[in-house]
Queue: 2 jobs
Job 1
Amino acid sequence: MTGPTSDRDLPRLTGDIVRLCDDLDRFGFCLADTLLSPQETERVRKTVVLRAQGERVPGDDRDETLAWPQRGGDQWQLLMAGEDGLDHMALHPTAIALARHLLGERIHLSGFSSHIVHPGNQVMDLHTDQWWLPQPVMPGETGTKAGDITREVQPTGLPVPATRPINPAVVINVMWAVTDFTAACGATRLVPGSHLSGVHPDPAETYDTVDAEVPAGSAVIWDARTWHASGRNDGNAPRIGVTATYCGPQFRQLQNFTCGLRPEAQATLSDGMRALLGFELWQSYGATDDFEARFARPGYERASSARSR
Ligand SMILES: O=C(O)CCC(=O)C(=O)O
């Protein structure tokens, strides 16, 4: 292996939060041992499978063996938080503790969805999950402007510690293994230490990766700067993961929960979940009318009461 690590100290599957935080800081990822019971994991698996079937459009003849991005991201099934009885995963104390360790106290859920790697799926392209963040610049230097960023324009390089300032982590992913993650069935692959490089992987290059092999009910957690991808599934059963992505409160969330959640589902959310989903204001941001309110209310409620006066 190249880079700052040797096999001896790579992250290990553990329930020790201190070790998990340390692995996350040093290597850009960690492996949390058995957070869900076998019964609960099986319930989650069934929910995901049903949802995935439900989202399949009649006549859809997609090629299941192609990996993202070649087949355009349809590997992702939307698993809407607040809708499927899975909020305890997004709110799990270990997930929240690791998210707060990396991002600080106030966090939002950026996305909550399943990622199914079907038998025959090829390896995904290595990538980071905060590619949209402008790069730091030196005085007088011109970087890519915020509104001009695409995945393609970000700088590439080697997965070694940078020699100039880099961005902090603003996103973290908690990938729940709903089935066993093994190298043979497409476990997440990661490049240890790449979170400190400040650059992105070059799609034309190959890099040494580590397979995050964890049993069902456990989780693989990575700093969004860490280069990663799902592996190739050479097995005969789907590899099922559920990703809870958290971000700082000042960033746009990947999934638009405030728009997407049915009003009936919104009404059942706990305050903790409402805060996580982005209904809670942060420093006035996210308001509809009252900048002092804890939670935003739909703008149309105010407009219609103003009209009826
Ligand atoms: O499914 C996986 O193992 C990796 C998913 C991934 O690359 C991502 O969530 O950004």
Job 2
Amino acid sequence: MIYHYPDGQKAIDDINFTITHGESVALVGANGAGKSTLLLHINGTIIPRQGIVNIGNIPVNEKTPEIIRKKVEIVFQNSDDQLFMPTVFDDVAFGPVNLNIPAEDVRFLVDHALEQVGALHSKDHPPYKLSAGEKRLVAIATVLPVFPEILVMDEPTSDLDPFSRRTIIQLLKSFHHTKIIATHDLDMTMELCERTIILNKGEISSDGPTEVLFNDNKLLAASHLEQPLCMQSCPVCGKAG
Ligand SMILES: Nc1ncnc2c1ncn2[C@@H]1O[C@H](COP(=O)(O)OP(=O)(O)OP(=O)(O)O)[C@@H](O)[C@H]1O
Ligand SMILES: [Mg+2]
């Protein structure tokens, strides 16, 4: 697949990969490497023009957005792209309401989703008044009530305090369907993703077991990455990670 933005900026350059059901895959790489652009192809926010994206045996195209969005839930990098309703409750309820789930069940699902991310206290607030981290938690909560087959997340832990980051990592650990996570949080990647794809200037520079890739310092440096802290030697005693 190849993708140029309408202004001519190349974002994806001839990439090709397959993810099978139940895999947990990280997408990492420098700023501007093309991670978000690639994720936007997976839920049909961007319709592929040169190349094919298949979700199972369904191609992502102008005719399939509804069916694709039932299978793929995305948490955008910018929470303001996710939250557009007057209150947090309305935003989290949006998915289940569209699935025609009865109102009482929707209320339960919303409370449960907000509880899971630790944001129940924000339920009646307007999203635009929340802090960046609070918005991130609510954005993640919006995808929880609809039980997608494929969960796509763009920087799920950015802006989060350490406690909330841990809550989200534990939550993602308990999600056993397919996960595709773009992130600069390589420690989280070590915990959650057995496979990593490294993007470099719109191309896949590596695709393989996370631990193998993260042990290759040359490869990491060439992709503007650093070994996660959990793999680095102790700065005091020098003991290996
Ligand atoms: N709407 C847009 N119009 C034109 N070019 C864009 C647009 N969005 C992104 N780009 C360009 O496409 C390339 C890939 O951007 P993308 O946002 O996919 O990178 P990324 O890997 O997600 O980066 P980051 O780590 O900063 O989130 C960059 O060169 C970027 O400048
Ligand atoms: Mg991005």
